[in-house]
Design goal:
The protein is mainly β.
């Protein structure tokens, strides 16, 4: 039964693609911005802590993180439309996460100059998109992207991990060469359950699109 349903679904998709006509335009370039909900939940200021100096040894110190900043997901993509349903291309996604690390005394005050930490994530994502509704002003689509995340920082560390983005639904609104987009999706990058760079990040994004 499962094989029958899978075969019917595959045949239906192939029929839709085969029946698709030429798109109104072949090329599109987009720039956009998306949220960093996952990163803001994971990377945040550590509690300064309160201590009873009378019970602590002389010269007690603790370390902490503070002053966090986030760029959001800044992305750009190019897509080529093979039909009015199927498009393919590549997307780049960049984000920065910044904070300071310092040493505190027993009263929670920072001692000396804190260290600045700058973390960056760059994703290169070959993509495919399926546009299942088109009108004069509105297009609705979904898509998949698979590629590589490259993580690096100002401490000269570098790591790489598989990355993928699931675009659950996207809406493109506009007429002519210029239009706007809004998407709901899930951007992920991890090597294992204990080595996660992003999970369900970039839930919501917006962009400006130019087509020709």
């Amino acid at each position: 039964m499962k094989k029958l349903l899978l075969s019917i679904s595959l045949i239906t998709c192939l029929q839709i693609v085969a029946a698709a006509g030429n798109p109104p335009s072949r090329h599109s370039v987009r720039v956009g911005w998306g949220d960093m909900l996952f990163e803001t939940l994971v990377f945040h200021a550590s509690a300064p802590g309160t201590f009873d100096s009378a019970t602590l040894p002389a010269g007690f110190r603790s370390t902490g993180k503070f002053g966090h900043g986030y760029t959001g997901h800044i992305f750009a993509d190019y897509m080529y439309s093979f039909t009015d349903v199927v498009s393919a291309g590549v997307q780049t996604d960049f984000e920065g996460i910044f904070w300071k690390e310092g040493v505190r005394d027993a009263s929670g005050q920072i001692i000396g100059d804190p260290t600045r930490v700058n973390n960056y994530n760059l994703c290169i994502l070959p993509s495919v998109r399926f546009t299942y509704f088109r009108s004069e002003l509105v297009d609705i689509y979904s898509g998949l992207s698979f590629g590589l995340l490259m993580a690096f920082d100002n401490q000269k560390q570098f790591e790489a991990a598989p990355a993928f983005n699931l675009n659950l639904v996207g809406v493109r609104v506009g007429k002519g060469h210029w239009n706007g987009t809004a998407e709901i999706g899930l951007l992920n990058a991890f090597k294992s359950a204990n080595d996660v760079y992003m999970f369900a990040s970039r839930l919501f994004s917006v962009g400006v699109n130019y087509i020709w």
